Amino acid sequence: MPNIYVPKPDSDTVVYVRDLRTWFPVRRSFIDVVRRRPPLYVHAVDGVSFDIKEGETFGLAGESGCGKTTTGKTILRLVDPVGGIIAYRPRERLLKEWEAIGYHPKFIDEYKSVDISKIPSKYLKPLRKEMQMIFQDPYGSLNPRFTVYKILEEPLVIHGIGETKEERYDLIVRVLEQVKLTPPEEFLNRYPHMLSGGQRQRVGIARALLLQPRFIVADEPTSMLDVSIRAEILELMMELKERYNLTYVFITHDLALARYICDRIAIMYLGRIVEMGNTRRVLENPLHPYTKALISAIPEPDPRYRKILRELPIKGEVPSPINIPPGCRFRPRCVTYDKTTEIQRYCETDEPPLMEVEKDHYVSCWLYGTPEEVRELVKK
Amino acid sequence: MLEVRNLKTYFYTTKGVVKAVDGVSFKLNKGEVLGIAGESGCGKSTTAYSLIRLVPPPGKIVDGELVFEGRDILKLSEEDFRKQIRWKKISMVFQGAMNALNPVYTIGDQIAEVLMLHKHMTKEEAMKEVYKLLEMVGIDPKRAKSYPHELSGGMKQRVVIAMALALRPPLVIADEPTTALDVVVQAQIMNLLKRLQREHRMSIILITHDLSLIAEMAEKVVIMYAGKIVEYGTAEQIFLNPQHPYTRGLLASIPRLTGDIHKLEFIPGVPPDLSNPPPGCRFAPRCKFKFEPCDKEEPPVIEVEPGHYVSCWLHAKK
Ligand SMILES: Nc1ncnc2c1ncn2[C@@H]1O[C@H](COP(=O)(O)OP(=O)(O)OP(=O)(O)O)[C@@H](O)[C@H]1O
Ligand SMILES: Nc1ncnc2c1ncn2[C@@H]1O[C@H](COP(=O)(O)OP(=O)(O)OP(=O)(O)O)[C@@H](O)[C@H]1O
Ligand code: SF4
Ligand code: SF4
Ligand SMILES: [Mg+2]
Ligand SMILES: [Mg+2]
């Protein structure tokens, strides 16, 4: 009987989320309100659990709209969840700062984790320093009317870092050196449009780094860049990670890239994790029908299979995240479901949890356990 | 079937002349797929626009020959080109076209319009053909009445492909036909292109920044850098025996799904400003093999093995 995944923190855990849900209300028309139609929600994140260890790079992958960005933003409380917990183990520095402003967080486990989803907004500011985001779009995420200097000074001012202008200047010069925009003086007075895509992304990284974070959500940080310069940015991110002992959530839709970057990976589909484990294991031995389909679709720069039609074991299209199919949400697209009559009744009625199929390799599919077994386990 | 000789297309902007395509030559045989790859801004789309003579202003084709089925189609009058060549003989799937479908017309009407305009069909005749075309690209003909917003990205791309195929041209140019699509949908569209190419013996020019997609289809590959072709050869030559430092760098920067995890390489720096390209080899500022002649004189094109051309001083020396 397989184990069911429940995030269990240990002394190395920095972040874990349990049953995280982030829904966005769908705008209702006047008629909907008059007719008292029930409100509808986009189930962007719909029951996600995982844990991340200090110094780890944890990958979130899946197709467009599966909820990667929303998961990342929710962990940072850039959007609020409707349910679940987001546990984060603060550094001493943060605890002191909270204490200084009169906030005494409740610890939810023996490792002094705090449930971020419960922190009142007015106490979030000190937390922002510890948890930062690098955005996908180096064009859109920098204010076009600000110089690089101004872009980087802003967070320092907001968080009251650097007493004087000189101190802030020094910090900014130093961070530009860290992200290899050298000589820094040459970049300080440039506007974003005077930078290449790669340089802009470095400014984005510099901005995240300035506040000396411990945990960074990097949302497809290289997907807008030309392939020839991607590795340069990734190398920089990994170097900084080693140097400052950072922990990353690395969001990507590129599974081949994830293989180089991520220690562990979670494959998402329609707001849930369908498979999770060591990146190489998951990619070399995918167990969920969706992961298998994704992998079969990835082209490789090798002409030997030219013109051969790819077999894509998946049908239909991604359904709307407003009306989630009952049972297993992948069922309408699942070819395995069609072929495996003995599990069909489960697929139709029960949502499969993440089950441990191999050591530390979790899969959410009734091929690997039955609802009866799961209920037994839950009872225990 | 098509021979492009020394094509030059420049944009005459207020800030200077952007030499977007600067002396491009290649050949395409009937029924063949040619891939054109290179970084953003290297002139791929401008090359494509030049082939159907739709270079947007302030751009102009300033030199070269486009020999198509035996005659130079650059010499045709605009009227003759429109009547005889564009869309009938050479059509194009434009970059981003799926987002440019007209939102107020059904997709059936939009495809029908191509047929009515070029083939002077009646609406009924055109609609019959529309159903066939939709079927061909894997859309249920019943969806002809759908509006673009009712379709997924993949389906819109199929519609755009159907429009390009409407007059059954022998040559179709597909400019980034799967960019912005998810990997599964991308593979489905690539399957469609492969099938259509095989069944209709079409020639395709596939333009993409993604070398992996080119490996999926193309017999011949052109690698462009800063408005010029740096390497040209068969897919086997380019992928298994790349010779230009830029091609090698590009291939080494692509993460692989299988095999050993080597260190991903990158090419330092950025492509040059095309209104003020560096003297000599345009890749020289980023090239780790640069030596004396590189930034003085433009490298010659060398045939390193039959049909495999490289523009690099490293090979000229040998
Ligand atoms: N602010 C919002 N209001 C309403 N719906 C939203 C909002 N943000 C995201 N969504 C929806 O939530 C779902 C998940 O979106 P999200 O951006 O998290 O996906 P993603 O996996 O990051 O996709 P991509 O790969 O395209 O970036 C999508 O259906 C999206 O349309
Ligand atoms: N209308 C225009 N006016 C001025 N310059 C232009 C115009 N269109 C393109 N260019 C310039 O010509 C060069 C080549 O552009 P082109 O669109 O052909 O590149 P591309 O290889 O298709 O790039 P991408 O991969 O981004 O689509 C670029 O430097 C671009 O800035
Ligand atoms: S639970 Fe059933 S429908 Fe879902 S992925 Fe597994 S086989 Fe397919
Ligand atoms: S000509 Fe010189 S600079 Fe250009 S690619 Fe060859 S070696 Fe490098
Ligand atoms: Mg996203
Ligand atoms: Mg283009």
Radius of gyration of chain A: 22 Å
| Total helical segments of chain B | 10
Ends apart, CA distance between termini of chain A = 13 Å
Largest protein interface, residues of each chain: A-B, 43 and 46 residues
Number of helices of chain A: 15
Give the C-alpha Rg of chain B.
Answer: 20 Å
What binds here, in terms of ligands, is: adenosine-5'-triphosphate, iron/sulfur cluster, magnesium ion
Give the SSE string of chain A.
Answer: EEHEEHEHEHEHHHHEHEHEEHHHHEEH
Largest sheet of chain B: 8 strands, mixed
- Helix content class of chain B: 25-40%
Total beta strands of chain A: 13
Low-pLDDT stretches of chain B are none
Task: Count every beta strand of chain B, where a strand is a DSSP E run of 2 or more residues.
Answer: 12
What proportion strand of chain A? 15-25%
Distance between termini of chain B? 33 Å
Mean pLDDT of chain B: 94
Mass-distribution shape of chain B: globular
What is the strand arrangement across the widest sheet of chain A?
1-12-13-11-10-4-9-8-7
Q: Which stretches of chain A of 5+ consecutive residues score pLDDT under 50? A: none
Oligomer: heterodimer
Name the features.
heterodimer, A: 380 residues, alpha/beta, nine-stranded mixed β-sheet, four-stranded antiparallel β-sheet, 15 helices, 13 strands, B: 318 residues, eight-stranded mixed β-sheet, 12 strands
Q: How would you characterize the overall build of this protein?
A:
- The complex is a heterodimer of chains A (about 375) and B (about 325).
- Chain A is α/β, with parallel strands linked by helices and about 375 residues long.
- Chain A has helices at about 30-35, 70-75, 90-100, 125-130, 150-160, 165-180, 185-190, 195-210, 225-245, 255-260, 280-285, 290-295, 335-340, 345-350, 370-380, and strands spanning about 5, 15-25, 40-55, 55-60, 85-90, 115, 130-135, 215-220, 245-250, 265-270, 270-280, 355-360, 360-365.
- Chain A has a 9-stranded mixed β-sheet with strand order 1-12-13-11-10-4-9-8-7, sandwiched between helices.
- Chain B is α/β, with parallel strands linked by helices.
- Helices cover about 30% and strands about 25% of the residues of chain B.
- Chain B has helices at about 45-50, 80-85, 105-120, 125-135, 155-165, 185-200, 210-215, 235-240, 245-250, 315; strands at about 1-15, 15-30, 35, 60-70, 70, 90-95, 170-175, 205, 220-225, 230-235, 300-305, 310.
- An 8-stranded mixed β-sheet of chain B has the order 6-7-8-3-9-10-12-11, sandwiched between helices. In chain B, strands 2-1-4-5 form a 4-stranded antiparallel β-sheet, covered by helices on one side.
- Chain B is globular.
- Classes of the chains: A alpha/beta (about 375), B alpha/beta (about 325).
- Chains A and B meet through helix 9, helix 10 and helix 12 of A and helix 6, helix 7, helix 8 and helix 9 of B.
- Bound molecules: adenosine-5'-triphosphate (2 copies), iron/sulfur cluster (2 copies) and magnesium ion (2 copies).
- One magnesium ion (MG) binds next to helix 2 of chain A.
